Amino acid sequence: MKRARICAPLFIFAVCSGAFSQKIAVAGDKLYSAGGDHQDGKPGVVLIENGKIVGIAEGNKIPDGYQRMQAAYVTPGLIDAKTTAGISGEYNIPADQDQDEETDPNTADVRAFDSFNPTERLVEYINTYGITTIQVAPGLANPVAGQAAIFKTRGPSSSLMTAEEMAVKPVSALVFDLGEFPKQVYGKRNKPPETRMMTAEIIRKALVDAGTSQRKWEEWNKSDKKDSSKQPASDLKLESVSRVLRGELPAIFNAYREDDIATALRLAREFKLKPVISSATEGYLMRDTLKSSGASVLAGPTLQRLDGFETMNATLENAALLADAGIPFALMTGYESYVPKNRVLLFEAGIAAANGLGFERTLRATTIDGARILGIADRVGSLEKGKDADVVLYDGDPFEYTSHVTAVLVNGRITYQAPVGK
Amino acid sequence: MRILQFASSAAAAIALFQLSFSQTSGPTPASPGTQELLVVRGAKIYPVSGPAIEREVLIVRGTKIETVGAEPKVAIPKGARVVDASGKVIIPGIVDTHSHIGIFPRPSVPANEDGNEGTGPIQPGLRALDAIYPADPGIRMALSGGVTTANIMPGSGNVIGGQTAYVKLRGRTIDEMLIPGTIGGLKMANGENPKHYGRENQAPMTRMEVAALARKEFTKAQEYKRKWDEYNKKVAAGDKDAKVPDRDLDLEPLVEVLEGKRIVQHHTHRADDIMTVVRLSEEFHFKVVIHHGSESYLVADELAKHKVPVTLTIVDAPGGKLEATQAELEAAAILEKAGVKVAINTDDFINSSRFLLREAALTIRGGLSQTVALEALTRNAAEMLDLQNRVGTLEPGKDADFVVLSGDPFSVYTKVLETWIEGEKLFDRSRPEDLRYATGGFQVANRYPKLLQSSMAGAR
């Protein structure tokens, strides 16, 4: 009844000893590769060697020398494009909440990487639902919230134990938070921001200051550097924001309401950023604007509670409407403040699939499209030769709530295997 | 404590009240008095009282079900309005044993929050019905999820939170929503939530005190009941000088609990807290339903032994609070196997009522059979509210509350097409204004049509 926390006997040696099977073949009655030559939905076999995919064989014949795994459905490992899993723990007590540094509305220097708890049970939990890659981002409180990171997940039978081992990108984006949360957090202490005006001002100031600092550094670097008193001061916040200005780091703006999304797009225009909008509850109301801005969207949980003022217009069709408009988007689970402490991307996907997005577009929004927006499509997001062997096996339609994930592989290792009979 | 054995007396009470209240009708013209005949034919019907049958006929007379059966054994009465539901699936109206719609209306801002009277931990005198906002969009959203009956409860911030309300999801006033003849349950809570008083150095600060406060209040209620029993006995014996005891609004509902007229609907998560509830219910001989029951599967055998039913709140992931960290999707299956009666609730706003069928699908993922999952949403839930003689199955004489689905009740791709309460169609997915409650976007409905001039229309 409890999810197997120990390795299934069959794999005790192979997986737990660390001497994992070098060659695994995963056969799917319906294999969805989300890329490459394989025709999705047809039978196929993922061939894995040393943690990488070495090829896709059509049909169901397994070449000699491979450990065989088989399932009704096989997909790439799922990618949660933005979550707080690993930095916002399941107990929801101060001891395990490390997602919001609510002491300064500009915390551009903090890194989710340094809060990440690899052994947090919620990370292991979502791995058992096929989520193999997560972008972990600071929470919702700060106008300049800090740096996100991308990790592989560990499962019940994983050997990965440190953030370094799990990291795909230690720094993957800089996050900016708009809307109700920042003004709620600081406004009640009579500190800025108390209004949306001030939230925008704090973000603009951070970007302007970073630009100024960057110019000073450029001048210094061009100079003969003889008078060290003229060297600009090192400032981790300014350096972090400068990376965004230089286009080295994506800017993710978390915004719900139409006007807040518009504010994010306005800021992006002013500072020539290519914005990613997360949550985007009312994104469907401004598809033309989003499309012409070149923004990508990390669609907020379609299950997002339609509760507060800024989420009153949440619709289950948001994902489908954005996709229809040709706006690049991926599914994410974001942050949850209470029960349940984490959403499961696979369950979010089911709702999106059933509300206009359909199976194949939903699959892409949870795999390859996320990988592209996050800039990691060279490693993950599809079952193609040369990519990491992140593979999920299911006993039925992955998006049906009654189906089961039967096994999960990360980097070619089995991280989860359902107890027999499930 | 026991759900089944007090059913008959409550049913009698309901029947009695119906005489005087049966004219209370919904807000729209389909008045029960007209006794209009409605025939829904061609659907696969899950009556829950028996196995599902393809191409069945459901006959509704006024507000009640007259017949459920297969053609041609069941004749289509002349003059009836006939609705063709071929290829569709019909289940009984869903009964949500634990909801906060109307009492925590959307949007959730302090101005709207009326579920927790946080000024003291013992509030049995409070009535949810005095705070329920019938215009809460959450109620129409719940209808779009197939919910027809709900137990709307105060929150879990108090040891005794107040009196709950058993309602149908229709009507402009709470009086139109309330199910005639019902008095609701009593909301109680233990574990973490009521201990919030401890943060202000007020009682309760510990689980010991939470239990002691409950015990103290029920002891007072026993004494109060004794006074009234003595008085009533004197009056019955013709004593004209008998002194009327003073009324106590806090103790009256507790006496109803002691007399088995009002079920304790108890928020509790951890296994030891659940056993504390069982202990109290046996000490004071009251009927109780365990709500949430995150760790109930750990004491499934005890709950079976004591015949205590459980209504589970199914959450996507464990945690959010310590006492919910051991929540498992397998809980329903384990309880069922042990012989515990199981229902599934939303705890809306924790879960949106639109997804109650999906939550049940997750219990199937956890090993429950489809048959029991459907019972958990309907018949079992009705029994936990003592409403099994009115709702929960599609049988002759029951309220004509039913849901028309586009397919398998537990497929994520299935849509709730129509929700009917007492013979009246209150949700129809083909009506644009209703659809926006199913999908969201009802506040911007005037902007929606333009958006849908796209491939979406075909995808629907």
Show the helix and strand layout:
The complex is a heterodimer of chains A (422) and B (460).
Chain A lengths: L11 H5 L6 E9 L10 E8 L2 E7 L8 E10 L1 E6 L28 H4 L5 H7 L3 E6 L7 E9 L10 H4 E11 L2 H8 L8 H27 L13 H10 L5 E5 L2 H13 L4 E5 L7 H7 L2 E4 L18 H7 L4 E3 L13 H21 L2 H7 L16 E4 L10 E6 L2 E5 L5
Parallel strand pairs in A: 1-4, 5-6, 8-9, 9-10, 10-11, 11-12
Antiparallel strand pairs in A: 1-2, 2-3, 4-13, 6-7, 7-8, 13-14, 14-15
Helix pairs in contact in A: 6-7, 6-8, 10-11
Chain B lengths: L6 H15 L15 E9 L7 E9 L2 E7 L10 E4 L4 E4 L1 E6 L37 H8 L2 E6 L7 E4 L1 E4 L5 H4 L8 E4 L17 H30 L14 H8 L5 E5 L2 H13 L4 E5 L7 H6 L4 E4 L17 H8 L3 E4 L10 H10 L4 H8 L1 H6 L17 E4 L10 E6 L2 E5 L3 H8 L8 H4 L4 H4 L1
Describe this protein's structure:
- The complex is a heterodimer of chains A (about 425) and B (about 450).
- Chain A is α/β, with parallel strands linked by helices and about 425 residues long.
- In chain A, the strands form two sheets. Chain A has an eight-stranded mixed β-sheet, sandwiched between helices. A seven-stranded mixed β-sheet of chain A has the order 3-2-1-4-13-14-15, with no helix packed on it.
- Chain A starts with 11 loop residues before the first helix and ends in a 5-residue tail after the last strand.
- The N terminus of chain A is likely disordered.
- In chain B, strands 1, 2, 3, 4, 5, 15, 16 and 17 form an eight-stranded mixed β-sheet that branches. Chain B has a six-stranded mixed β-sheet with strand order 8-10-11-12-13-14.
- Chain B is α/β, with parallel strands linked by helices and about 450 residues long.
- Chain B has 14 helices and 17 strands.
- In chain B, about 30% of the residues lie in helices and about 20% in strands.
- Classes of the chains: A alpha/beta (about 425), B alpha/beta (about 450).
- Chains A and B meet through α3, α10 and α11 of A and α9 of B.
